Amino acid sequence: MECTEFDGIVFADTWQEFNALRYAGRVVHILCCSGSMGFTFQDTHYDVAAGDYIILPNAELGSDFSVSGDFRGILMNLSDAFVTSIAIRSNYGIIGHLSLLQNPVMKLSDRDYRTCEAALQCLRMRMEEKGHLFREELLGSLLTAHILDLYDIHARSRQDLQVSERVTALLRQFIGLLYSGEYIRHRDLDFYASRLCITPHYLSELCKKISGQPASYWIDRFTLQEITRLLRQKQLPLTEIVERMNFSSISWFSRYVQKRIGVSPSEYRKNISFS
Q1: Partners of 12 in the beta sheet?
Q2: Were both Cys, which of 18, 114, 160, 191 would link to 186 (CB 3.0–4.6 Å)?
Q3: What per-residue string of b and e applies to 111-139 under the rule 16 or more CB within 10 Å gives b?
């Protein structure tokens, strides 16, 4: 593991080291070079093979990681602050972000795999140049180039989609409100539309155009992610979870969960594997 005072980019040599670095506020990048791995992302299990690229916008969203005995990969961990600081001037970021929240695994062609592998190896090599007078700026430029390559790989599958700066700003504000925890207090579409000074219908149509899902899907997605996280803590009584999530009663909470994941909170708890 690279141990320096600069933690904007951190590479890990072993899976154990990488696991220890997965904490809130970090962005996870994994290029699977050989072997296989699996993980759970927002209650969906993913199997990853050689040539796949994983990006988790928030390290906390992934769990139950496992790797095969012959797994080999390039494991990179980024601080959200550093990624933000490089300020990529492209509206495509919000499209990619929403796509990654739906599916964090990108299937690469042979050519794209070689491009990503070379970029990551270059980043790691240049990180060793601790005496470089403009090291952070250099690493920021190399990371920017790599992220733009990732945008290109993703965008080639969605060439018909173009997004204006206004739409990008609106969706970034919407997702920002969800990340800040507003879904705990507000799960109605009208609240978010009002904060953005647009109509609920327009907000929903924007989300649907960019991600294929309406705005209500994303509100529920963030809500259920937190609910299932709390339900896994079986020492927490349901009454406390109901209170934390700002539901008016256990019966309303149970109906909400049953409708959206197909089982009651108690059944979910019974079926989940606690390790």
Answers
A1: 75
A2: 191
A3: ebbebbbebbeebeeebeeeeeeeeeeeb
Contact criterion met (CB below 8 Å) for 186 and 195: no
pLDDT of residue 224: 87
Q: Which residues contact 159 (CB under 8 A, 6 or more apart)?
A: none
38's tokens: 């699996």
Query: How confident is the model at residue 275, as a pLDDT?
Result: 41
Query: Which one, of 149, 121, 131, lies nearest residue 6 by Cα?
Result: 131
Identity of the residue numbered 164: S
C-alpha 250, offset from chain centre: 30
Q: Is the pLDDT of residue 157 over 60?
A: yes
Angle at 165 between CA 204 and CA 116, to 5 degrees: 95
Rounded-to-integer distance, Cα 103 and Cα 215, Å: 17
The answer to whether the Cα torsion of 240, 245, 251, 256 is positive or negative is negative
Amino acid 270: pLDDT: 83
Q: Are 34 and 162 in contact (CB under 8 A)?
A: no
Tell me the average pLDDT across 167-174: 86
Task: Compute, in degrees rounded to 10, the torsion defined by CA atoms 235, 238, 243, 247.
Answer: 150
C-alpha to C-alpha distance for 51 and 74, rounded to whole angstroms: 11
Using CA atoms, how far apart are residues 113 and 115, in angstroms rounded to an integer? 5
The pLDDT, as a whole number, for residue 89 is 65
pLDDT of 185 above 50: yes
Tokens of 204: 């929903």
